[in-house]
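Newbie here. three chains, one complex. Structure please?
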Amino acid sequence: MNEKKTFWQHLQAWVNGEEAILHADEYIKKREQPHQKRWIKKPNMQRIKENKGLYWFLCVLVSLVFITIMLLVVSHLPTFGQPINPTNNEVMERYLEKGIEETGAINFVAGMILDYRAFDTFGESNVLFLAVISVLILLKRDKKNINAREDRETEEDERFDRSDHKSILKIGAKYLSPVVILYGIYVVLNGHLSPGGGFSGGSIIGAGLILYAAANGHEAMRRFFTFKTFTLISVGCLLTYCGCKSYSFFTGANHVGYEIPKGIPGNILSSGFILPLNICVGLIVACTMYGFYALFTKGDM
Amino acid sequence: MNMELSTIIQMVLVVFLIASAIGVSVTRNLFLAVIVFMGYSSIMAIIWVFLESPDLAITEAAVGAGVDSVLFFLTLKKVHALKGTREG
Amino acid sequence: MREIIAAIFIIAGILVFIVALLGIYRLKYVMNRMHAAALGDTMGLGLVTIGLMILGKDVFHVAKYILIVLFFWMSSPIASHMIGKVEMLTNKDYDERVHGK
């Protein structure tokens, strides 16, 4: 570093942190060599050596065609938020004008996904449940899905968990996870009044459960959340959802009367079935999130 | 130049979004890809707020940046792809 | 007047964030980078939140901002502690790197 540098080179080297290291020149040489080599190096041609020219040509061609089609489609889309767009049709007017009156929910989105389009949400909840069941089939550790290495790792993890109780992480998780779960419960219960609802609140509750389980280990988690709890909550919530919506479809379609009173919009106990349905969806989502975590880490719940 | 400030911020955010999306698919290091994907989810959450759908923003921040990354890290641990840990 | 004071606080916070980002980019080792990142998480976030508190409409706004700051000031040191612990446990030449032998 004997030669004079201009101010700009000096500043550039300072920002890159090169002058902070002793023997900077060798360090830079050592660092930049593999970097440059990687740009020049040809990709691995072993598998595609028969037609490598055609391969690159086709890659670029297919990408260009797709990019062109996408850009053309985007350029023909109507501008976002214009009043003459095809999305602003009578369905949206009906939702906005009669939404509060018909569903009783101030949050239009909750009224839409849990009252007008309740079948959609039921299907989504079932999809989540089926996803956990598929992961359970693949990753559950039982007699046929076991090997010595994973056993040893699990044992080491448990020993590591037990060895440092009252570490900083555990104390932090002890104070933070109740706050996170409480916020999730607030979001679920206020789903028909403010932004949020079953899916958002349920995923926040699931994140809180994952935090607690990651800090304290599965032994502490098993005191209040086992596989039996998971099945009970998930199946119970799905059946409750199904029963509620069946009741409201039956009475609404046959004009029987006996509708659920809508209440005053804005109160917490209002808007008919939306509050219990939100709670059901939130519990299903929370159980799903924690179920994924437990199955991926330990292969059991 | 009669653009509003929020439009400019949205454009900058969309540029960052595209950059992180390309970064996820280009990078060879799987650990780095998961970290960049977390950044992608956070930027997407802010864009949902600008598009006036806070429901989706909450869900994106909780699922995309929180739970998804945890599941990706667990998968990387499961297939022994994390460098520098016990499995090497 | 209130807006001007709030703007001064927010701009100071954003400057602290810029310094933290520059530090993360410039420093090369995990521990040094952690030191730079903690600056943004504590002081930058605190200054921005004080600015937003001055702009707040009623007591509940301010209380929510205080909750956000408390949450960050509890969770960020724990995260830094875990990163440092993992680096200490897994880096084989940790002593050489840190103590500069």
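Moderator note: DSSP finds eleven helices and no strands in chain A. The radius of gyration of chain A is 29 Å. Thread marked as resolved.
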